[in-house]
Amino acid sequence: MSQNKWYQLNSEDVLQLQQVNMQQGLPWEEAWKRQAEVGRNELSEGQRVSPITLLLNQFKDFMVLVLLGATLISGLLGEYLDAITIVVIIVMNGILGFTQEFRAERSLRALKELSAPNANVWREGAIHQIPARDLVPGDIVFLESGDRVPADVRFLETNGVYIEESALTGESIAVSKSIAPIPHDEVPLGDQRNLGFMGTMVSRGTAKAVVVRIGMGTEMGKIADLIQNTESMETPLQHRLEQLGKILIIVAIALTILVVVAGIMHGQPPYAMFLAGVSLAVAAIPEGLPAIVTIALALGVQRMIKRKAIVRKLPSVETLGCASVICSDKTGTLTQNKMTVTHLWVGGDVLEVTGDGYAPVGHILQSGQHTDAHKHPTLSKLLHVSALCNNATLVEEKQETKRKKGKEGAGGPSSIWNIKGDPTEGALVVLSAKSGITQVSLSEKYKRIAEFPFDSDRKRMSVLVSSENGRMACTKGAPDVLLQHCSYILWDGKVIPFTSTLKQKVISANEGMAKSALRVLGIAYKELKASDRYDDHEDVENGLVFVGLTGMIDPPRKEVREAISKCRKAGIKTVMITGDHQTTAEAIAKQLGMIPANGVSMSGQQIGQLSDDELDAKVNDTYVYARVSPEHKLRIVKSLQRNGHVVAMTGDGVNDAPAIKAADIGIAMGITGTDVSKEASSLILSDDNFSTIVAAIEEGRSIYENIRKFIRYLLASNVGEIMTMFIAMMAGLPLPLVPIQILWVNLVTDGLPAMALGVDQAEKDLMQHKPRSAKESIFARRLGWKIISRGILIGVCTLGAFWLILRVNPTDAETLLKAQSVAFATLVMAQLIHVFDCRSSRSIFHRNPLQNKYLVLAVLSSLILMLGVMYIEALQPIFKTVPLGWKDWILVLIAAGIPTFFMGLGSVLSPKRNKGSRGSRGSSASVYTKSSKPSFR
């Protein structure tokens, strides 16, 4: 029997295939025999990687090997502080990476915890409680409210059973189960109403079922297998830094060899040139780069926490910056996860209901005017019946709010309103409470006598109540079913016969609401006589008086539409992937402005009929995926990746975990998310809000741009140092810088200023450009040109200042010492001026240089350190410096300012070129359709 076709069979055929007698259950001996054949009912964790192996893997990175080489050289040169610093950086990065990977390994263990510990099984004609892992196909199990389903089962008997499957299907509302076979070939997981799935929870009712799949063969097992076989993506930052490390080491070694060889050929002492060359190599490799990247990411993480985004994997912060597609769950992320009645139909009139969430605050409007329910008899009846035919409870929870400084009355208690019970029923309770018809007031007037609960076959629910005016039946249910049991209708406060014309009006109104993706319930009642029977629902639910329709929906979050608009301007496509019905998903997407004019939606059934190539051809034009399974979600993510997208995937359920892990950036919900989805994710939203994702993307882009800023600064500075030495050696000049000065420049300029760039403020147009390509080089968008051009200019100007002093008396030792001091000061000052230029994608003239106070303080600190080695007598012999006069300083400042101000002036004079300086990151605009106001007449 195909694994996913059990829903097509009737109960007798299932029992026959499983070779089990319903009256006796499996014999113990047969159960043990089957267990020996098929194994235990548990999830496999796959091959575990030992913690030691995980730790050692952290030190295989190419940049780490480069840093270890720099450590060895620093030690040989006696620079023990540098060597210790580098070792600390390597160890910290290793521990950080180990911690992240070790936590990720726990996702499968979290999945196993969803398995039921025990099960009530029918064997040899008696009920036994056994460990759930000992269940075998063919076992008959009993389920009741509060039980976790221990395996995939086919229901044999159901008694008002509802199962909460949100972790598996993404639907927040408990699903009623039945035993009727489903004849269709391809049925989405959420519509397989005669099956129960491992790990889901029985919310109410009782059931008897036969086990059809166990362990890794269950739907939960398929997810475990997907998690095991899905590789986490390497982040673009990790790839770029490895690429950068290789380039730097090759270039540094090549140029250093050239400098040493050129110096020796022009008569410089070999030993002195060797020391100078090694010093230059150490300076050329920015060993502080991983530390600065880590610090920039860590500070970005702190900012993101303040914006309700918790980062689990540090490098993934930067990945957000190049996300080109966000695949978002609907319920609770794009919507409020609070079913709300938004429209009513009574007596031929469409009424609109205002108010958000579960707070009983809002109005019922007719043609835009407030309607008093107490003066509208039909409306009043609808609200009373809705609240009475109900098992949900509206709960007010008080919480203290902090008093804001300087504001009186800002503190004190505030209310949080929640629903206990079914969300659909809760929406009706809130609706009634908005008009002052509360459960407390009703309990004083009415007493419940009996209840006929909702049933998937009857599709309606009735409650019998008594009051001083007599007894009444209150009924709600699917309109198409309820209409068949109604003989009258309440119209303008009067009970009149329910004619075919009036019924057609109700049907049209129902269809109009359904097309707008509202969940519609019909409301009816019946005044009971003393002679009427109260124990038979068939008698009670016939000859009802129809009152009206209630239309409800899980409304979109207010802030999400603006967030999606922001994404669109940033060139980011937003996609909805949900387990909900296609009509509902499309309606929400249109309200949020998510679907453009050429956008389409697709169901899980349609996805299942497509090959990977066919899906790849359609995925770019599809904005809504509905009724999808975990395999479908994974296929969608991989298809988008094959189309060149960097994918951010959000989710909260177990069913989302494989896709979350496969995505470039996996995002889990902090409030509703399961442990499995959180462990598989890189980012957790503490408020489950889509707009938080957009804020995180903004931070991710800012962090990446800051990383580019300090890479630009560090490499341009290093190119300047190498060019200073290289040109001097090729020209046959004396050493413009001695080894200790090279190392000091490296220490003074590479540290604090570079770190301060890592926390620089974002440029204003950051979210108005397309995301960068995941394949984009870190030197893209003219960064390579800026590094080389500024670096060469810094080297030329430094050497120019050196030569102007040296030419006065080239053979004099004191003149050489002064010239070297001028070169040292010029090189440091050129780099400290250049750091302000690195803040802008255009030039130093396009941003306020004093805006970043940390950078100003860092530059002042570096300046003081430089002046210290030049003017403190005890340090002068060590660093081979002499104090400079004011004329020397004029020369230093002019030479140091030329690289930045000369290139900046060119940028100001060429505004057109700089307007498009971001290349492919030009703004992207799409015309999206606006949702129209629904009409239900």
What are the defining features of this structure?
single chain; 937 residues; alpha+beta; eight-stranded mixed beta sheet; 28 strands; elongated; cell membrane; nucleotide-binding
Give a description of the structure.
The protein has 937 residues and is an alpha+beta fold. Helix content is 46%, strand content 18%. The strands form four sheets. Strands 10, 11, 12, 13, 16, 17, 18, 19, 20, 21 and 22 form an eleven-stranded mixed sheet that branches. A hairpin with a 7-residue loop joins strand 16 and strand 17 (460-467). Helix 9 (236-265) runs parallel beside helix 26 (690-730) and helix 13 runs antiparallel to helix 14 (423-434). The chain is elongated, with a radius of gyration of 36 Å. The two termini are 49 Å apart. Mean pLDDT is 82; it is low at 403-412 and 912-934.
Quick recap:
Belongs to the cation transport ATPase (P-type) (TC 3.A.3) family. Type IIA subfamily. The protein has 34 helices and 28 strands.
